[in-house]
Amino acid sequence: MTCSLGSYAQSAEDKGLAIAKERKLRDSGWGDSTGEMSMILRNAQGDEVERKMRLKSLEITNDGDKALTIFDQPLDVKGTAFLSFSHAIEPDDQWMYLPKLSKVKRIRSRNKSGPFMGSEFAFEDMSSFEIEKYTFKYLRDATFDGQASFVLEQVPTDNDSGYSKQIIWVDKQHYRLLKAEFYDRKDSLLKELVNYEFTLYLDKYWRPMRTEMFNEQNGKSTELVIHQINFNTGLSDNDFNQGTLKNVR
Fold first, then answer.
1. Could you tell me whether strands 103-106 and 93-98 are parallel, antiparallel, or unpaired per DSSP bridges?
2. Residues 55, 67: contact at Cβ < 8 Å?
């Protein structure tokens, strides 16, 4: 399917779902990857704290992806590790290893809306994009940052989500997520995410080298800057093990 969205009559819901499926399809088949990135936390006054971390990811066929994030700097977070098993239908499984407590903490589903490592990203934002987690509705065409885009509403199907809805901008040429607005449970705008500086890998997979999440309600922001990504590194299920989370290096 190349998403010939105008070739037959569609409801707004059908068109939204077709766009979401095409977005997912175009980012399928990447296998596994490793990366290095910085997480920059900014308060409302613009003061910054930078954390450096490594990320390992494994694509899972017919389910959500697995991801392991390891914090290397600064010293107060060094050794902290976050393991996430995203699922298409069931609630995600997530664990955090806290070296100061020498303890692995399970992130309960009802706590998924909480902040991830004090950032403006929530634990649920760290999951892979899965069609089954939302209902979709096409809203309109628009231009964002000079790129012709579809604008969709996606509503989480999980009652434990901290969001009532998300409004997203997906570019028409490559079906990349350009921007997302997150609305809280009172339907007020909570956060805005923008992806910048896309780079193409393996002639198929686009990745933003910079992502900013701005909290509209407290003025804080978190920026993720990718320094390096490698694909087809040979990762397997054995590299994503809750039992060995304390020993990851």
1. antiparallel
2. yes
Q: Where are the alpha helices (DSSP H) in the chain?
A: 12-26
Phi, psi of 119 (to 5 degrees): -90, 180
117 touches 71 (CB < 8 A): yes
CA distances from residue 101 to 79, 105, 111 in whole angstroms, order as listed: 11, 10, 20
pTM of the model: 0.93
Q: Is 28 helix (H, G, I), strand (E, B) or coil?
A: coil
| Cβ atoms 87, 64 nearer than 8 A | yes
Which CATH superfamily is 12-39+50-228 part of?
Lipoprotein localisation LolA/LolB/LppX (2.50.20.10)
206-241 pLDDT, tens digit each: 999 999 999 999 999 999 999 999 999 999 999 998
DSSP state of 122: B
- How far apart are alpha carbons 139 and 166 in whole angstroms? 12
Q: Do the Cβ atoms of 146 and 173 come closer than 8 Å? A: no
